[in-house]
Fold these 4 entries.
Entry 1:
Amino acid sequence: MFSRLAQNSTRQREIAEVVLRNGWGYMRRLLTGTRAEEPQLPPPAVLRNILVELGPVYVKLGQLLSTRPDLLPQEYITELTALQAEVPPVPWQDVEVVIRQQLRTPLEEAFKMINPQPVAAGSIAQTHRATLADGREVALKIQRPGIEIVIEQDIALIRSLADLVSRTNFGRYYDLKTLAEEFATSLRGELDFSLEAAHTDQLRRNLSDSRWFDPDRLVVPEIYWDLTTSKLLVMEWLDGVPLLLANFSGVGFAGDSKAERQAVVSLLVRAFFQQIYIDGFFHADPHPGNLFYLQDGRIALLDCGMVGRLDPRTQQILTEMLLAIVNLDAQRCTQLTLQLAESIEPVNLARLENDYDRLLRRYFNVSLSQISFSQLFYEVLQKARSNHLRIPGNMGLYAKTVANLEGVARKLDPDFNFSEQVKPLMTDLFRRQLVGEAPIQALLRTALDLKNLGLQSPRQVELLLERITTETLQWNLNMRDMDGLRRSIDDSANRLSLSILVGALIMGAALTLANGGTGLLFWVSVVLFFSASFLGLWLIVSILRSGRLR
């Protein structure tokens, strides 16, 4: 079937050639018509090379897969995390056409100057520096011409391949069709720059106020909505350098370079923990290229193309999971994982807890400063996957965000201690969950609830005793998952009744023949015997086909 797909278009033939050239053994056997076993992934380096050669859309697919530690082993996540498309910039004359098409006013009236040399070029867009007519410096993010056509073609092909592989046990286990739809939605979202602009604005508002850090030290670029469209994003230009290239001298948070690096790390950890655990909306791609150190000492957070969202229930589970991992509590990790994940098959709780216990025991005698929380969380997700649990997709974004953040923090500050950084934040989080933002109001509300309960309880007890004494009390029991048991009992009863009927017919026919039945009685007994034989044979076949003979 795959070989037929590979003959449908030039693009599909190109993909087949790339796969064969890079030596993916399983796919080579499939394409050449050789009988193949269950699908197998290529080695991590081979997979990375294939995705790079296939082009920007498949690089994006690799980047999405790098956020799914519940699907791929750690070595694949590591290899795909740094995946970047090597795309040459689009010539200025083509870019200018896109800008003019998107603007509501002539280009010369909107901009005083646009630098034709891009400052960055990616798989979907490239960025140019420009000056507005009123003198403000801006960054222009312009979508690559024709990229939406390429993306739709490749999305259609990826869906076809996902549908093909989903027919195998491998595909059903990993739910590849859902993953393909998630990828399509994510990629189409990246094509709409107005959506990215909205995300940037929301992040800017959320980080404008905080009790954990100084909001004046963190900046998210302002969006110029009067010039922004679905293919053109115009935002504030921020002068600075990538965070890991900064020398942290001169302007800064503290007097010396080391103290300033530690202050930057503390700022980033607190800002991202607020996004994740309080706001429920977070920048999901804080790699070093998206974190800038500005000339005035502020930290800029750029590129909101990839964001994550967490509902309050998930936030609470992750808060407790963080505490359980830091405390190396295998039993609590098991309970929280079951609340978070969906079971594909019946879960062996004892095995899952033992797996977590063995995992966490490796860290019992290790200093907390030496433990990589992101690595440990990845391993927790891997254990969940090996125990037939499917983790929600946003957990991958969460894990990737924490991993990127922790990686940047350790490069800036080799003495970075994750546990020490998060302990005061965790204390504040639990306090908020217990009493909320207004402790006095929460206390008064609780007191009012207790008062109402005290007033209502005597009357409720009186009604209960009255119903018991007058025999009017009724119990309504609703047991879940009883339909399957009821159907099984009905099937068993029907088969038992049919077996008794067949036995009775055979015995009746045998008795009639034994007593010398002749004429009409003889033929009645023959008909009864053959009818009983047919019904008995049908009953045996139905039992065998059900697979429940034992």
Note: Residues 325 and 469 are 53 Å apart (CA to CA).
Entry 2:
Amino acid sequence: MATLRSVPPAAPSVSARNDDGTAPSSYVRSIWLLQLVLGASVVITVLMVQALEPSLFLRWPFSSGVGVIIALTAVAIVVPWHRLPRAAVAAIPFADIVAIGLLSFGTDLRFGFFWVFPIFWVATHFTLAFMIAALGTIGLIIVVDAAVNAVGPVTALRLIVVLLSLTFIAITAFLSARQTRAFKQLLRRQASRLQGTLQRVSGQERRVSQMLNGLDTGIARLSADGEVLALNDTYVDLYGIERDEPQRPGAAVEYATLHGEPLPEAERPFTRASRGEQFDDERTWLYDSHGEWRALSVSTRRLVSSDEPESTLLIVHDITALIESERARERLAATVSHELRNPLTAIIGHADLALDHPDLPPKLRDQLEVIAGAGERMQKLISEILAGSRGVFREQSAPSTADLSRIIASSLESFRPAAIARRVDVIDDLPPSAEVVGDAFRLRQAIDNILSNAIKYTPAGGSIRISGEVTPDDVILRFIDTGIGIGPDDLTRVFDPYFRARSVRESSTPGTGLGMGIIRSIVEDEGGSLVLESEIGTGTTVTVVLPARQSAES
């Protein structure tokens, strides 16, 4: 693994970045350009002087000024300015000011217009102090020229106008340069922010792409015109298509049913999504490029954004494992149901044969009838489980009525031997009749589960009290036991499948954690409600409220 090293900051230098933010090469080019323009202008002027007034070459200040400017031009080209401090560069324009002063000396400043070049240079690239110093140098030269050559009032006025004009040019150039530098800095900061924003957006796009490619769900994003905007890796692998030509059909073929007919091109989910159709959880079969059948759940979602055109998201789930698990569950339910029916048939048959004997004692006859009834209910439960596992549709039957008092009495008859064996006292405080609207078979299933739990989790010497109250609208049942109870943290979870409270897990009584969920499901399906109250070491109260059967008079 590579290690990160701390790099100390480099010392500031002219070669790294100039004061105005320009690169060294640009800075050096500006020096060359300004000095070459001045040198070329002076050379052109010298040629004109040679043709028009050659006597000026006899004046040593003029000849000296020309020589100095030409020499400074050569120096400006030869010297490596990017290696020198910035103050050293200022020597060139100041030397130009002195050289132009020599050109103009004693000539009524006819060549003083050349001062525009160094003044513009200083005002553009240097600080205010350098600009004032440059104007002061020019003013000093003008004063010395006026004093030595004893100029008159007109010439003095001309000198003053030249100085004022140069001052105006210098101030204008200085302010313009400051504004330009400020604007450049602003643009640089904005460019830096935009670059940072672009990097963040690009990073987010990469992360989103990585997340989408990590999903086991195929995703395709299509424009309103049917153009493919994005595909994740799962979609590409599932359909065996080429990323460069996503519109072309892939190596996989879609079917409406397993081993059925291939889907026409117009009915393929991709084609329908390209047309803007919206559908949800449509099942298709795919024969992929590896020769395997896959069950797919296909959906679309419309994507609407304020800053992007509308598009459609095609979502493809591979549900082959789910279909296989459903089939395995059906096979298991069928096998278990078949295996359970055989012994139940034997139990019910022998119980019926025993009941046919006329000389049976009454107590034994009652016990055999309980066994036969329990076997018949078990057979019906197995049939319902098998039908539910196969997804068999059962037409909703007309509302029926049931007497809860009779159902509970019958259930108690079945569970009383278990209560006696555990030395649990069961107290029945029910009204003579408690008719409700509901399925008697399913309500018996719920009552059996409630009593079974109460007996299993009530210690020896405890009691279970069953009470009922009939109102014009409801029948209210209460099952109150003195069992081990349920903690407050577990009370809200006891209806979850396979969940067992801590107090139950710590006991030696086995269980599956399915009973309370089944009870609540049955009660709510029958239009009722269930309330569970419990306290550790005190017991549990189960309150069941079911709609009462309305009398014919009402």
Note: The first strand starts at residue 218 and ends at 223.
Entry 3:
Amino acid sequence: MKLDKIDYLAHKITKNNKSFSLLAAAGWLCLLVFSGPVLAETIEILYEQGGSGGFSSSDWPWVVFALLATFLVALWVQRTQYQQRLQDKEEELERSHARLRNAQRIARIGSWTRDFETGETFWSKEALSVLGIDANDEALKHYETLIHQDDIDRVTEVIATAYFQGGNYQCDHRVANRSGQEKYIRLAGQVFLGDGSGPVHETGTVQDITDRKLAELALQRSEERMRSILDAAPYPILILEVAEEYPVLYANRSAYQLFGIDPNISSDELKSREFWSEGLSRSQFIDAVVSENHVFETEMVMKGRSSHTFWASLTGSRLEFGGVESVFISVMDITDRKRIQQELERLATTDPLTGIYNRRSFFESAHKEMRRAVRYSQPFAILMMDIDNFKSVNDNYGHQFGDSVLRRYADIVQSLLREEDLMGRVGGEEFCALLVFSAEQGGYVVAERIRKRWMDEVFELNEQQLSFSVSIGVSTLVDDSESIEDIIERADVGLYTAKRSGRNCVIVHNGEVGPRLTEKNKVK
């Protein structure tokens, strides 16, 4: 279409140049014919009026000749310029033709037009080359004879719709040339309708897309093989597109089983947000994979279709799947391993008899609370507690009964503490509690509450009713420079003082700590 327009403009320029030259020549001749006598008469009048040194009326033909010669020279110069411009246009037009031919040859695309009124059809050389036929081939009159039998119904439907509605159409199909070689062709066209709503003109292109189509088919076969391999994998696999909401491109059979997905649901119907317990953790994981290309064994909570949650270890890699940027994720259910790990951590941090913090874990947590209290200038209190005469309990009633007493005491104290308070077993029958946001008076009130509640607790053994008492020492944070050990030491001195004072009492001690008394361990 562009070539026709360029040819038309070149023809118009040439025609206009010829017309202009003839018109200009005629104009100058008329001017000379009509102005010559006038000029001669003017010269004669001037001469009769006494003008001297002029030229006679017989000289005017020379004047006309000089003017005519000047005009011819100017006309020749102008014609030469127009010829040069026309030559430049023709050369530019030829270069455009060459560029267009090269572009079509490289893109393997050709053009064609059809006039329904005259029945005339034009196929460019490039189009003939794409189809692998010559200009005299009868197939040009019946294009459908070139189309592969398996594609002809689809192509016919697309073109028939365009003939009825007008406008553009495009469809890919196979053709077989006379040598039997099969090609993939992209047929594109535009149909123009007349006043009677029937097609009057059609123009379009044919492009050889064989290489592209074969590459797509190879990629498709590769993806199919990949899906077969992934489906056979024993561990769950998800492939998500790196786009808004992270669409699911693929999920293998193991993933369907892990997340409890109905096998009749296709992968593209799945929503990746349904697999994560928290949407933020999903975004954080995928962002990490995209930025680092690989992320290994990240633990997070996942969610199945029935809303049950489980611990999973995720390993992700960045890849291209189906031509789009994606994230490959392998999922491993580690719920059982996590439970074992949590149980081991619990055993390592808690007292196996009472279930509260053991000595090491209590001191670690107490150090953290100490630093926080100092940073924010908040008070806290320490309670050192020892069940009175507990050695005689083991001696008289047995260690099994003694263990039940210790468990019960831990339960009672925990029920009287707040959730943010800490409690640990730091010795055989010694317990320690840390009360956050508690000053001296608050610590004393809680300690008295524990002492009275423990006295009311009654145990039955061999038709006997037994009750026990407890001695408690209380101390608080006095100076920001002291350590948690200093505060516990003062509470320990208060506990010893309570023992020496007859047991079953609470002693607050925030004074100087003297030398440890050797009798302390003897007083129970």
Note: The longest helix spans residues 60-107.
Entry 4:
Amino acid sequence: MYYTYGTITSSTYTEMLHSDLVVAFGFNPAETRMSGGGGTYDWSTCTQGKKVIMIDPRYSDSALGKEDKWLAIRPGTDAALCEALAYEIIRQGKADKAFLDKYCIGYDSDTLPASAKPNSDYKSHILGLGEDGIAKTPEWAAKITGIASNEIVALAQDLMNASTPFICQGLGPQRHAIGEQTVRSIVILPLLLGKIGISGTNSGIWPSHGRSSISLSPKGDNPYSGSISFFTWSDAIVRGVDFTPEKDGLKGVEKLDSNIRFIWNYAGNALINQHSDSFGTHEILASREADELFILVHDVFMTPSAKYADILLPDLTDLEHTDISAFGGTNQETVIPMTTSVNSPVDAKGCFEVTYEIAKRLGLEGAVFEGKNYDQWLDELYKRDQANNAKLPDYKDLVEGGLYKIPNPDFKNVAFSSFFADPEANKLSTPSGKVEIYSETLAAMSTHWELPEGDLIPAIPMYHKTWESYEDTETREQFPLQLIGHHTKSRTHSSFHNIKWLTEAVEDAVWINPKDAAERGITDGAKVEISNDRGSVIIAAKVTPLIMPGVTSLAQGAWLNSDNLSTKVDTGGNVNALTKYHPTPIGKCNPQHTNLVEIRLA
């Protein structure tokens, strides 16, 4: 989004009320933003009476009873679908050229930057006049996506017929080998139609909620300017000094002075469980290169990651300390005082107290904490919030009430409405000040950055065959099934996987289509082994037509359980025993839905 719009903005859920078509790519708030405090309620109420089309390899709880049509798509191929939709929109003369010329750069040759090669614009690419010479027809996309060409044409027609299409995507589609192209390709659709910036439309990304009145603690300033992407932390333990901006996305500095030597892992299970290639990560943490690495873990449970701690500190649970949280819903905000009468049964300390004690030993407690303890900071921050929002009650009344609701029935946010109303007065923060369908920044990166073979950074959004995708026919000879890792309502990522009541509520099992199961002699509930060259997972099979043939899914977040990590066999159901460490080209991010596996009876 930063390379297209310069920032990230989306319309609120309530704009679906003003839409005549909702098209959702990999969007699943019922399992990722569950309950009334998340997106499930908003999604359910705002889509009532609307035509809803869900595009997802798996029939999720968000589709259940809400969709007019479920289009099962092969993982990682959403960009190919978008290109075929664009082909139909352009072919039928429904691309709003006047709109695109006014607001965008690089739709066609008329707005292509002078630095760009001829026919490198988006329209030429779609019509087969670009470098690859392939017209992105529905028939072309059908072979890649698994969606029949007539269904693609029908979806294009729905989009063209809609007055206010609300197009959105979840966070899963981006978590693929070249996930940035999926995001950009979906975002192009409302632009092609000229249906953005008006009520009932969206920018193409996850819809937003209302704003919150509750602020966060001040963070202070980091005196060090260098940073790496979160996903590359394990690599930086071994070769951080070799990181470069062009190869590893290093920011703020030209090189790092050392490999990572200290990790403070607070309330997180990403050391081993929530990071790609769990067994490969274990080898890094246990290797000679990690001898100088010191790990501090601060948590409330003995997670798989906590077992790697040199020092393990017990944290306070939410039931053992005070705080204030808030949820900025669609038409009201809920402010929640978190209070306690529970004394911690162990010598636990919260994050504030631990950092205060460290600051005190460094002689920095005055500069960092300004002489205030936790309760004083809580009071100070809430008073600041009250000064900015007269609707907030006194803290005493907030606590006595338990929940405080601030009605906001008129709140709305239409993505980029100011820019599209007056592009000269409200220029975007892109280099051109316009929407960059063609990005000169990305074009420069494509020539200067060092990428692994097969990766690319195109100047325009485009589909590209990747490693361990459906089109990776060489790897599919040994590992023919695609594997993704969906979210489940029984936990938030890996949090609460150790709560037996929750694991009973949602079974941990690998979803497999009846056709694929029959070919392997697998019946529902049978113990199976999911494997590839990175490891294997022993788990029950869920045989269901709610996932498309050729695709399997194992809920992410289950705790790694291996008696001997050197065997690379997990019996806990951790999908990251099978995922690959291979950062995405632009953001150096998480590709954890791009996997090829085989499944056999265990």
Note: The radius of gyration is 25 Å.
